[in-house]
Amino acid sequence: MRLAWQTVRHRRAAFAGTFVAIAAGVALVSGAGSLAASSRPQAPDRYDASTVAVHSPSVGQDEYGNPEYRSWTTPEAVRIASGLRAVPGVRAAVADPVFYVQRIAAGRPAGDAEASLRDGHSWPAAALGGYRLTAGRPPVRRGEVVAGDPACQGAEPCHGGASPGDLVVPGETVRVLTADGPQTWTVTGTADGPGWYVPADDALRRSSGVRVIGLLVDGDPAAVAQSVRRVVGDRGTVLAGSDRGALEPDAVSRVRWLGAQLLIAMVSLSVFVTVFVVAATCGLGAAQRRRETGLLRAVGATPGQVRRTMVAETLVVGAAAGLTGVPAGALAAPLLAGPLVRAGLEPAGFTVTAQPVAWAAAYILGVVVALAGAVVAAWRSSRVPPLEALRETAAERRAMTPARWLAGVLGAVGGTVLLALLPRVPLTQRTTAGTGAAMLLIGAAALLAPVLIGPLVRAVTWPVRRSATALLVREGTRTAARRTAATAAPALLAVAFTVLLTGMVATIEGVEGTDRAADIPAALVLAPDGAPGLAAAAVRGQPGRSALPTRVLVGHGGATEGLDAAGVDGPDRGAVLTPATAARLGLRRGDDVRLWWADGTAARVPVRAVTRDAPAGLCLPRALVREHDPVALTPVVLLDGAPVPATGARTMSARAYVQIDIDAEGRLVRLFLWVLLGLTAGYAVLAVANTMAMSTAGRRAEFRTLRLAGAAAGQAKLVAVAEALLAVVAGTLLGAVVAAVALTGVRDAVAAELQRAVPLVVPWGAASLVALVCAVAATLASVTPRLVRAETAGSGR
Prior knowledge:
Elements: H1 2-10, H2 12-38, E1 52-55, E2 58-61, E3 67-69, H3 74-84, E4 90-95, E5 101-105, E6 108-109, H4 113-116, E7 120-122, E8 133-136, E9 144-148, E10 173-178, E11 182-191, E12 196-198, H5 200-206, E13 212-217, H6 221-232, E14 237-240, H7 250-288, H8 290-298, H9 303-342, H10 356-381, H11 402-420, H12 427-447, H13 449-461, H14 468-479, H15 481-518, E15 524-528, H16 536-539, E16 544-546, E17 548-556, E18 559-568, E19 575-577, H17 579-585, E20 592-596, E21 602-610, E22 618-621, H18 622-628, E23 637-639, E24 649-653, H19 654-697, H20 700-708, H21 713-754, H22 764-795
Helix pairs in contact: 1-9, 2-7, 2-9, 2-10, 2-19, 7-10, 7-19, 9-10, 11-12, 12-15, 12-21, 13-14, 13-15, 13-21, 14-21, 15-19, 15-21, 15-22, 19-22, 20-22, 21-22
């Protein structure tokens, strides 16, 4: 270890790239880990005073792995709450029915539409958050409400529509939008917490069953929770302490999930690229130190000692880099909390806390990644023969090993074959298969770069082939294939991924809107305007068709699963299924669908038809859906006549309607895309700069010879810069060609899947920007070592 430490001290420049790569990777993992660990599910603020809660029973998981719950019916919730009040230590047990309410301001819904779905509560439930009246009295009859304080702040701001300038006082009336339609309520009081609070019986009528009963307890919450479990049994799940995070609304959990996906992708890419950079750095360093390694072997060092020495050097660098990266990431994480919230990747009120476990894991991971990148180079160094120290010159060894040849050829053949077979791949899998083929071809190009660089260099330098400087640059680049490929590979990967990923997104987005609009059999639609959906009053009387979505639990084959269903108009009280849903549930015409509605009510609905023309997999009578899911909102009405004006609704073209979702999805996709491409480009710049700096610093004798042969200092610098730019240009061209070919295959797959022509969108601007950044980094890295040693090289010392 002492030898490794001394080597690192005296060869700091050679290890600088490895240090920066590991430090950057550790900083990213440390910061992302702090963000992820801080983003744990949390109970909403409205349960702050309820240290123990009971959730309705779970009946399995949905298709995304999230728990599927059955609501309590109103009588069930009342009975359970009544029984819980008798448990020692329970001061109060309050059912918390939740419903949609949104204030109307200037004739349209105001505030956060998504959050308004959870803004309606019963007045007794205000005690679960510790909220109290600030003025007036509680509501006692329908049409009365306590308005939450519009100036409140916290994890759940007052989204219900009021703002500090829209204060209401007891005795005033307020216009609100509910699932039934616009209503006028009388404000009887104001509270110091967010939301709208109506009498308990009114809240139960407006909600789709009850999911949570909050408890106000005296004494130890854990002991009370244990007693409550014995009373509740299998009728619900008792939550206490951190388990109360299960009370977090699904919409908030989805936001956290999106943020987690970005963090996971960033960490995964960082780990992968860090291994790549460290491996490339160690490999180049090992090649430059062959004579030094041969000298060690000549004085008696065994292959094992050589391996251990090189691994120890990397361990020293990794340990030092980790000590730099961990605090950098820990300090940067809190600064990213705000941008993540604004980007919709973390819920409002998200803060970053100290996460020592995440910091320790990042440090250990950085060291492990560094060692993983050094293993192959250490193994190759241990095979250097002792006679290497006696060589007068250090000619570059073969750049292509048998393993690299095999992997590169297999990747090229596999990618080509997969592209050729795309027309025979099932339509639904063609896009995925095309992406896989692209990845194989890009990987093959990177592996075969030492072989492909030569012809590319000749082609690029053909116009200036008669120039002596161009000849020197061309032959120097071709002769040092390993060095050139090491510089070109990062640029190749960065440009290829930029062209492929941004091209795929742009190509698909270009046709997605038209394709979705074609699926809507109407030119005009009635869509929500500032609201999360259309209220019943807005849909009623409209000329056109619509469906009322709901979620039901269906029992079949001894199991219970959740299904998305749609309420459709019609006098029949039966169910209509698509063939796929009927086969999945094992049902046919005349059978009964055994289900639980959104409000927890059990029912049997006869199957009156199985048809491919059903607008949803399970269609139910709209009147029944409205009866059992009072908070359900209609997403859109397909108009076939002049619309009737309604609050919270607007008319637009079908194309404009689908574009709303496309823009929302596209914003997230582009955010993910540019973050990942930014990381890729950043590491590519680091790899290019590191490779060029190491290569140039290791060629002092070569440049000294060039100066002694009569070249001026400027000419020597020109040669270094030209070689660097030539390598980047070759890598850029190779990456662009491979990505364009792969992107064409993906475009053809999308066109076949959509059965229409799809224009190819190639983002040359983004690719050019990445290539330019790589070129600038290579130029600066190739010149800087020359500037430091220009005087020495010029004097011939």
